[in-house]
Structures are given as C-alpha cells and as structure tokens.
Amino acid sequence: MQLLVNIDHVATLRNARGEGRPDPVEAARICEEAGAKGIVFHLREDRRHIRDEDVYRLKKTVKGLLDFEMAATPGMMDISLQVAPHLVTLVPESREELTTEGGLLMRSVFDDYNSRVVPRFKEAGIMMSLFVDPNMEDIELTHRLGAEAIELHTGTYANADDSQKKTELKRLRDAAEYAHSLGLKVNAGHGLDFGNIRPLLDEVPYLNDISIGHALICDALFNGLANSVGRMAAIIHDHPGAAGK
Ligand code: PXP
Asked: Does 244 have pLDDT greater than 70?
C-alpha cells in the first residue's frame, strides 16, 4: 500500500489570488520528501485548479508515481498522451459538481471507451485505472475493457454515518476481493482523512495506491504539509494490510 497525494487544492488556493503562490509543484516536492510515493492531479475541463503548465512542470519534477486524473474527453486524452504519466485515472466529470461525485457508470461508457479510449492508452503503454463505485458489474466491465486497475470510490464510506459505515466497508471489501480475483490492481480514494483511514486499511484487502487530497491540504494549513503528509504516510506504509488478506 502506498500514499499518493492529490495536490489539486494547493492550486485552488493559488488561483484564488491569480498569482503564483502557493505553487503546487513545490507542494509536490514537499509531499514526496515527506514520504508520499507519488502525486495525483486532476486536470479538469474548466481548469479550476490544476492548469496545463502545472502538468508539464509536474512531469519534469515528480520522482515517484505520477497519476493523471481526467475525464476521457478527446482534448484531455491528447494532453495526457503527450505528458505520458505512469498512470491515468479516468473519472466522470461534470461542470457543476464541486468534486467528483461518484464512479464511472461502466455500462454507459463501455462501448465508447472500448473503441476510442482504451486502444490509445494501450498503444502508448500508459496504465489505466478506472474510478468506479464498489459494485460487481462496474468492476467486471472494467476488467473486460482491459484496464489494469480500478480505483474504488471511497466517498460513500467516508460520508456514511456511524450506522452505515460497516455496510460501506463490507461493500469495499467485497469489491476489492472481486477485483483482485480478476487480476486488477486495486486503488482507492475520495474523502479519506485521519479519522476514516484506519478502518479502511483494517477491513479492505489488496489495496495498492491510496489517493488523498482535500483532507491533507486542510490539515496542512494548521500543521504544515510535510507534517500532515508524513503522518498519513506512516499510517499507510506501516499498516500490515487488511486482516485475512
Ligand atoms: N480519487 C479520485 C478519483 C478523485 O476524483 C479525488 C478527488 O479529486 C480523489 C481521489 C481525492 O479525493 P479527496 O480530495 O477527497 O481526498
């Protein structure tokens, strides 16, 4: 298991004043020095946080795994193929949402991805991860498409009240077991923080990349980015893995 830090909201803060600071690329450097094994960014259609020039600078400076999160639009695919990150994570995107609201509806994107998206990433040798809700049909279709990985959407678990948390963890556990049995690499992310990370690691097996952004950048405002990332990296990297794995 390894921590990847999503630095989008460093750019959100930078863009609030339209000036150069804080610099997301400098943030990425600090995250890696503090123990993150890679960096995630989401280049959105509306460029509300990360911008194109950030992407090219990150490509030059990030030492660990670079995960390019994106909607599979033709324009975004051209950029990602030019940048050639280690991993692309494909997500649904709508202009009005404040953040990614759920996983891909695989049944509706399958034919389009199969003909237009997957062949281009395969040809370029870029690993594909699809962001999906923890349900069996979406996982099975991801496997059938030939993607190498899934990222399980943990947002429903993160937002569940105490009475529902166990049910959501069970869904994630079943989904991770199924995905692993199909040979998919299992990643996870969305809404994770210092309060909900440990039960996830305790209960859900076969996790690889854990992507965390908003909560870490918030914590960093009070405690410093290196401190926040270092604490989260220790929790994830020192964890023995889920029971029964
Ligand atoms: N994974 C995916 C696919 C996401 O869309 C996001 C949010 O950009 C994250 C992980 C990180 O979520 P958070 O910022 O809530 O930690």
From this structure: no
